[in-house]
Design brief:
mainly alpha, two-stranded antiparallel ribbon, two-stranded antiparallel sheet, 4 strands
């Protein structure tokens, strides 16, 4: 198996972390009789020799030995080694001619006959892994199809049959000129008397490569097959596949769904249906009403994926997700909470279920991770994110307790004006914070963020009880929070809180002036403007910051000038160059500031149109600007109309994910509608 391994100069080869001299030991570990050692060796192969899909000269040197391992029936867990070879070969095929990637792909392809020989191996995991390998690396389509047909005829293991169905779909995509018979095999696998799991797999591949061959009753059929499959699945405690080692492979195994196969079958179908959103919602609603809790848990996560990507009426779907909150199964309940938290206002149809869970489970109001800062628990955070005012009295009760959650400020801003009743308890908690404790900033920032959220809620003049909180704020910021510390986010949060009080905070003027020559100059200038309203003091500071080289400080200055509006008209000459070149988001901010300060539309409109097309991340900034322009924004009306007519969310780009994409997209839609109504 390892003939010649000592003849390789491994020390001269490289992997992701340097010299490859440790690779022979890992290769030997793959053949170990100890399952934990095999898993650790495979983990290191993925972590260094094939790190994040990369191919190195050491990767190429490993290929012959990996093939020797999979060809030896004495080696256990060979299915995982086949999967590693497939990944190396796929990545290698994309490299420059003669480079490590190209050479590795060629090395796998020239040994592909071994995959064909292993297609009938006694190990089901090997048979399943080689099914796709044969399609990818054997260059004789007719022979490959004969091999797949033969294996389908004799195979009895459901997992291998599913792999064969997936391989047929891959074959159709790779060899369209030979696809007719492969499609017929897929159609046959999608019908009785085949088992429900195999039929689901075949339907997913048909949806992917030949949607015209799908049955007209696809959604009810898929739901029925899922239920049949789950009814056949053995009940009992969840099993953990493989040894419980602390390796990447081990951790990934433990993070898999408890029914990974079922999850993958439905994910494949959803991915293939793609923009058939109505069908996908109907399918998810069917999944969420399945008797099996694992099926419902998988559906909850899949629902999140759909709603992150597509704009659709998903109120019924959200209602069904909310219905999972009453379960006694922690895994399903926690999945539902997590998804609802990231839906923000779209979680409103589930608000009653969230409120009931919050009421029934005070132990879930706050969560603690080791010695870290306590955070709001998922159910309460989800209720607040949805904008439901029933979160406010519970938040007040949390604030009256021993801890102040670190994410309080970010959470309450979603409640808008409803957060005002929290002010009295915020005042009291601010007054209790000692000035000489190293924990003072960590304790003060969440409370000050609540006041900042009130300022962002559009209340106009702050209510009297809020104004009365200023002495407690000033006590903290004078000697603790407004002491400049490089890169300290606490300072900017404190400045935002001071600015919230407007003219009632005039006593803080000297403190703010003391920061005008620091890295917080723009934030201090904005707060000073809100407190004193003297443009002659703050404009020179902001113009100086605009001319600086540090992007964060420039953007902060642009935001402050935009906030000043027409009183910053004299800054147009400094804003115009920023609007005409540079980072797209910075260009959008500068153009919007030009508009708000009374600058020329000859610069503003072309810039906004260009940035809108090239940088979706900046669309919210642009739409917010246009929402206040009235008929004057008509030249860009077509951008807003096109956005509202698009079903895919504007940040749903290939390879991109983010918990807040839904919130940003929904905000963009609201701003587009407001701008069109205003115009």
């Amino acid at each position: 198996m390892f003939t010649g391994i000592d003849e390789v100069d491994w020390a001269s080869l490289r992997h992701a972390y340097g010299s490859a001299e440790d690779v022979p030991g890992w290769l030997l570990g793959l053949a170990s009789a100890d399952p934990a050692e095999r898993e650790a060796a495979l983990d290191r192969m993925y972590g260094a020799v094939h790190h994040q899909g990369d191919v190195y000269d050491s990767t190429l040197a490993c290929v012959p030995f990996l093939f020797a391992l999979v060809a030896s029936a004495e080696v256990a867990d060979r299915g995982g080694i086949v999967e590693l070879l497939v990944s190396i070969g796929q990545e290698g095929g994309e490299g420059e001619p003669g480079g490590p990637r190209d050479s590795a792909g060629h090395a796998v392809r020239t040994r592909a006959e071994i995959f064909a020989d292993l297609s009938g191996d006694a190990d089901a995991a090997v048979r399943g892994a080689t099914a796709g390998a044969v399609v990818r690396f054997v260059d004789e389509p007719a022979r490959v199809l004969d091999l797949l047909r033969e294996r389908i005829t004799v195979e009895r293991d459901d997992r291998v049959l599913i792999a064969l169905a997936e391989s047929l779909g891959l074959f159709v995509r790779r060899h369209p000129d030979h696809s007719a018979e492969a499609l017929e095999l897929l159609v046959a696998q999608s019908a009785a008397p085949c088992g429900p799991a195999l039929r689901l797999a075949a339907l997913g591949r048909l949806a992917e490569c030949a949607p015209e061959r799908l049955p007209s009753d696809l959604v009810p059929l898929a739901v029925r097959l899922l239920r049949e499959r789950s009814a056949r699945r053995p009940s009992g405690p969840e099993e953990t596949e493989g040894p419980g080692t602390d390796t990447l492979v081990g951790r990934l195994r433990r993070l898999r769904p408890s029914d990974e196969e079922g999850s993958q079958l439905l994910r494949t179908l959803h991915k293939a249906l793609d923009d058939r959103v109505d069908d996908r919602i109907a399918l998810l609603e069917g999944q969420l009403t399945c008797p099996d809790a694992t099926d419902r848990c998988n559906a909850v996560w899949m629902s999140a994926g759909l709603m992150r990507e597509w704009r659709a009426d998903a109120a019924g779907l959200v209602t069904l997700i909310g219905a999972q909150l009453g379960t006694t199964q922690d895994r399903l309940r926690d999945a539902a909470v997590s998804v609802l938290t990231d839906l923000f206002e779209l979680a409103a149809p589930a608000a009653d279920d969230l409120a009931a869970l919050v009421s029934d489970r005070p132990d879930l109001w706050v969560r603690r991770w080791g010695q870290g800062v306590p955070m709001l628990g998922g159910p309460l955070k989800a209720l607040a994110h949805s904008g439901d005012p029933r979160a406010v009295p519970v938040l007040a009760e949390v604030l009256a307790g021993r801890v102040v959650p670190g994410d309080l400020g970010q959470t309450v801003r979603h409640l808008g004006q409803d957060v005002a009743p929290l002010v009295p308890v915020v005042r009291r908690r601010l007054g209790e914070i000692p000035l000489d404790s190293p924990q003072t900033p960590a304790r003060a920032v969440p409370l000050l963020s609540v006041l900042g959220a009130l300022g962002d809620a559009g209340l106009g003049a702050m209510p009297g009880d809020v104004q009365e909180a200023f002495p407690e704020v000033l006590r903290l910021v004078r000697d603790t929070l407004l002491v400049p510390r490089p890169g300290d986010a606490c300072v900017e949060i404190a400045l935002r809180a001071v600015g919230t009080f407007g003219s009632a905070a005039r006593e803080a003027g000297p403190l703010l002036r003391g920061l005008l020559d620091t890295e917080y100059a723009s934030a201090a200038a904005r707060a000073l403007w809100e407190v004193e309203g003297d443009a002659t003091v703050v404009l020179p500071v902001l113009l100086r910051e605009l001319a600086g080289a540090e992007p964060r400080r420039r953007r902060s200055a642009v935001a402050a000038l935009s906030h000043m509006g027409a009183r910053a008209r004299s800054a147009a000459h400094a804003l115009r160059p920023l609007a005409e070149s540079g980072h797209p988001w910075e260009r959008a901010m500068a153009a919007c500031a030009l508009w708000r300060t009374g600058g020329d539309t000859e610069t503003v409109f072309p810039t906004l149109r260009t940035v809108w097309a090239k940088s979706p991340d900046a669309r919210g900034t642009i739409a917010e600007c246009l929402a206040g322009t009235g008929p004057a924004g008509a030249p860009l009306r077509d951008l807003l109309e096109a956005e509202l007519a698009t079903r895919r969310r504007h940040l749903a780009l290939p390879g991109r994910c983010g918990n807040h994409d839904i919130r940003k997209d929904e905000r963009l839609l609201r701003l587009c509608r407001a701008a069109l109504a205003d115009g």
